[in-house]
Design goal:
heterodimer; A: mainly beta; globular; B: 109 residues; mainly beta; six-stranded mixed β-sheet; three-stranded antiparallel β-sheet
Chain lengths: 115, 109
């Protein structure tokens, strides 16, 4: 099993450009998450999807949109990139949102730079 | 409201010395707490969880409800312990998982 995979690994954008970060998991997990990681700020939740067909805002959703394409895939879109979105983005999945006792499995991350 | 506090951004410890990474929480009810670790250029992974009461890579963490703490400890630091450590509080029903801001552990030779 590949676990959680993310593409691309690195990306450089100019201000105003758009892009989509892809995430897929092969563990048959119900819940998926997008985080950003910034120095001194730790991990901040952008959006999450408790199950296929549902998405909800996290702590820092502004400037982002998500799509839960199917149970396996959860994409994050930046419609008009800004320098403040320079960050490392992590996708994660877990078996069940509501149980509260499940480990989150993380992808390798996407390092995004917005010039 | 649920909250996780890691008061130290950076902790430098000499090899062979004891390590304690602090984590305090705010939670109404009986919490289930985790420690995640991120080694350089690697993905985050679960290090240990409170409920399993196991020791992973020599690390242990005890839940202290009186002090609302879940500190991560290791008696003798090793160079390979250098990493970023996050304390995490899983969701309660509709709440969101809460990660602390992380502590970077630097083991000095």
């Amino acid at each position: 099993n590949a676990g959680v995979t993310q593409t691309p690994k690195f990306q450089v954008l100019k201000t105003g450009q758009s892009m989509t970060l892809q995430c897929a998991q092969d563990m048959n997990h119900n819940s998926m998450y997008w985080y950003r990681q910034d120095p001194g700020m730790g991990l901040r939740l952008i959006y999450y999807s408790a199950s296929e067909g549902t998405t909800d805002k996290g702590e820092v959703p502004n400037g982002y949109n998500v799509s839960r394409l199917n149970k396996r895939e959860f994409s994050l879109r930046l419609e008009s990139a800004a320098p403040s979105q320079t960050s490392v983005y992590f996708c994660a999945s877990s078996e069940d949102w509501a149980s509260g006792y499940n480990e989150q499995f993380f992808g390798p991350g996407t390092r995004l730079t917005v010039l | 409201a649920q909250r996780v506090t890691q008061p130290e951004k950076l902790l430098s410890v000499f090899k062979g010395a004891p390590v304690e990474l602090k984590c305090n929480y705010s939670y109404s009810g009986s919490p289930e707490l985790f420690w995640y670790v991120q080694y350089s250029r690697q993905r985050l992974q679960l290090l240990l969880r409170h409920i399993s009461r196991e020791s992973i890579k020599g690390f242990t963490a005890d839940l202290n409800k009186g002090e609302t703490s879940f500190h991560l400890k290791k008696p003798f630091a090793q160079e390979e312990d250098s990493a970023m450590y996050y304390c995490a509080l899983p969701p309660l029903r509709d709440d969101k998982i809460i990660f602390g801001k992380g502590t970077r552990l630097h083991i000095l030779p």
